[in-house]
């Protein structure tokens, strides 16, 4: 999908996908601090937002093989995660 994304997705969709990828990367970078209990909320709002969305993002990304998702619902969910 990523190779043809620019050809099949509009700018808003691409932006939301980039924001979500950034949040997932941020979560991965903060994982050690979180696991050790050393992460301090309130020091960086971008990090806080990523951490707060961690479980919902994980659940959202684990769509079951036969689970159907309407495209407009997908776009709305991406918008909510990216906001």
Total number of domains = 1
User: What percent of the residues sit in helical stretches (DSSP H or I)?
Assistant: 55-70%
- According to CATH, the fold-level topology is Substrate Binding Domain Of Dnak, Chain:A, Domain 2
Proportion of residues in extended strands: under 5%
Mean pLDDT: 91
User: Describe the biggest sheet?
Assistant: none
Which structural class best describes the helix and strand composition? mainly alpha
- The termini sit apart by 23 Å
Number of helices: 4
Number of strands: 0
Shape: globular
Helix and strand sequence = HHHH
State the name of the first-level CATH class.
Answer: Mainly Alpha
Ranges where pLDDT stays below 50 over 5 or more residues in a row are none
Radius of gyration: 14 Å
- Just name the CATH architecture: Up-down Bundle
What's a quick, concise take on this entry?
Residues 10-80 form the T3SS EscN ATPase C-terminal domain. The protein is 70% helix and 0% strand. The chain has 83 residues and is an all-alpha fold.
